[in-house]
Amino acid sequence: MHTHVTSVGLLVCTDPALNFSYPDHIPRACLDALPPQPGIYIFRDEAGIPVYIGKSVNIRHRVLSHLRTAGEAQMLARTRHIDHERTGGEIGALLREAQLIKQHQPVFNVKLRRTREMCSIRIDGSSPQVVFARELDFGRTEGLFGLFQTPKAAQETLRELAQSAGLCAVLTGLEKGTPGRPCFARQIKRCHGACTGEESPAAHAARMLAALAPLKVAPWPYPGPIAIVEKSDGLRQRALVDNWCYLGTSTSLGKGRAAVKAKAPARFDVDVYRILAKPLLRGELTVESLQAACSPGAESK
């Protein structure tokens, strides 16, 4: 609860729970049970089906903000109960939210609701190729650049990079051509001449890789599964992850190893990648190996 003193000396409470009226059709008990800790929450309809799933570092505050939002009246009208799950921290909440949304497909979750067929740009020899996650394990493949929902989006990105970096439209696969003949970009002085031999293939390849570098997809940086450890108000939780795929949670390293061993081989998940790539590669997270053999002292209770 937060308070402040107004200009006329009145002590005002700013606890969000006291600033609005609860919807009559949502049981007060489930709202009173909401904790001010990290986790996920589920708005359910009369049949118990999730209509919206969210996450927050403060479940209580976030849910109460939903109840005060006029633009969410339709969702609230269908809600008959609100469940919650605590997590060890924000990362665990983000991973669990993405998992549950894909599992239940709630009608009011749009951003993460659909399982997408992802594609990427791969340098195969001298020319970029569009490759698909259904055919290639993105988490264990080097030389991938960008994550796209459609081949068209990948091609458009490649076209924009070619124009801005002065790349050859033929060597980037954007235009058909014959050796020695200038591509269209060369004819209008926007290509450095790789198509006509005025720029070496090696120099062009180096410039193409430099242009694509900001889009590089990082392969899974560990030899096997890991646990990401988070703690919040007495709850210590491990998020189990392998190959940019979320496998669930565990409260101990031993149980985490057993759970991962029982799972099917992990496949790249674009939502998990987008949640974890930056903090994990920057070393911002507490990580434990889930490999069967680990160095002395690596195991945590």
TrEMBL record:
Q: What GO cellular component entries does it have?
A: excinuclease repair complex
Tell me the CDD domains matching this sequence.
Answer: GIY-YIG_UvrC_Cho
Q: Which UniProt keywords apply?
A: DNA damage, DNA excision, DNA repair, Endonuclease, Excision nuclease, Hydrolase, Nuclease, SOS response
Asked whether the keyword Ribonucleoprotein is assigned, the reply is: no
MF annotations from Gene Ontology: endonuclease activity; hydrolase activity
Q: Which GO terms describe its biological process?
A: nucleotide-excision repair; SOS response
PROSITE patterns, from UniProt? GIY_YIG
Q: Per its UniProt record, what PANTHER family does this chain match?
A: EXCINUCLEASE CHO, UVRC/OXIDOREDUCTASE
From the Swiss-Prot or TrEMBL record, give the protein name: Excinuclease cho
Q: Which organism is it from?
A: Pseudoduganella buxea
